[in-house]
Hints:
By secondary structure, this protein is of the alpha+beta class. It has helices at 14-37, 48-65, 76-83, 89-92, 137-140, 144-162, 176-184, 193-200, 205-228, 235-248, 311-330, 337-343, 349-352, 375-381; strands at 70-73, 99-103, 108-112, 128-131, 168-171, 188-191, 253-254, 259-261, 282-286, 289-290, 296-297, 300-304, 360-363, 367-372, 392-399, 408-416, 421-423. Strands 4-3-2-1-5-6 form a 6-stranded mixed beta sheet, sandwiched between helices. A 5-stranded antiparallel beta sheet has the order 14-13-15-16-17.
Amino acid sequence: AEGFNADGFSLIPEYILNMTLNSIMKDTTNLEARQHGAMEYSTAPVDLDKVRQYRLQRLRKKMEEHDVAGLLLFNQINTRYAVDATNMQVWCSHYETRCVFVSLDGPVVLFDYANHPYLAEGIPTIDEYRRMPSFYFFGAGTRSEQFVKEFAAQIADLMSNHGGGNRRLAIDCLSHVGCEQLRDKGLELVEGEQITETARAIKSKEELVLMKASMDVCEASVQAMHKVLEPGITENALWAKLHETNIRLGGEWIETRLLSSGPRTNPWFRECSMREIEKNDLVSFDTDLIGPYGYCSDFSRAWVCGGKPTDEQRRLYSKAYEQIQHNISVLKAGMSFREVSEKCWPIPDEFLSHRYSSLIHGVGLADEYPNIKHWNDFEARGFDGLIEPGMTLCVESFIGSEEGREGVKLEEQVIITENGVERLSTYPFELDML
């Protein structure tokens, strides 16, 4: 009733109608081709060394802008970005047992969990491999103080030999015991996340190829979920198909468990459970998938299980779809975050309290800078910056009313180009729900 006038002509905004009609056949064709392509990534589609050199160059450019001689990285996403060597990434993210030191005008040193130099063989961005004197309590116990002093001495020595007198060391994340010892060595510690996040924000053309490879695998994994969705399957069993397909096709892990059904979809952010999905339930999910080459594919869809959508489900889905399409149409290189936020779709009061926490966010090796807030939240929690070519962004929507039973989560992943926006995620929307 809201979508058409008495003569049957669509009242849907023209930009949404055009984008939808033009993409139906393209999306279907692309999906089939890209799912076939997901099977073909046994060899990299680009020169990985070129990607590695570009990423290291980006870090050093930002280091120079912030006048630091060294960059110490413990966040395993940042170590991956810097050198592209991995070792139990999820496990090592729990402990300070593996890090990378990047000097502005000197070597890149990988401090690894144990003496496994073969894990770094053939990677041109690593100049030196060392075993880290790990000082986290689980590994070092009562000898933590001894080992942290040894580690701090090695970092101080690298800074002295290659810093040219500059004692400023940027760090992304490190416990207070490590920071105290580095300061005791006369180093000035600087916030490092601003360096890594802004470096990672702009993708090279080779990185975009790898991101598309990851998206191929993600969309094949989502299709595997869609095929087994039927009444009686548990949320966990459905989510397991995403994991299984991702791993089988060369992906790495999934960052969250954001899939829910029926009344668990509203409000958002309940993770999947042993609840059995019932016929006519709405199922919403967010992929948050780390695919091949470590790149994140992050989009959301919503389906109805085993039946036709109700009028209320259609209403919710149509609002979420409209929000996504409108907000993508707004994006343009050169806009400020504030300008984007102000021009985005105004959320109706009914859905405002359950709105998604972020309007648009960056994505690369994981969710990353920037994080653009809704206009309602901008003055309280937002920050400004510029939309730049080479950014890859996720456009978010959650539509669910405060008193409603269900909610729709949609999200689309896009690339900002010099001339507009290109979609990275092409998995079809449920057009029969519009």
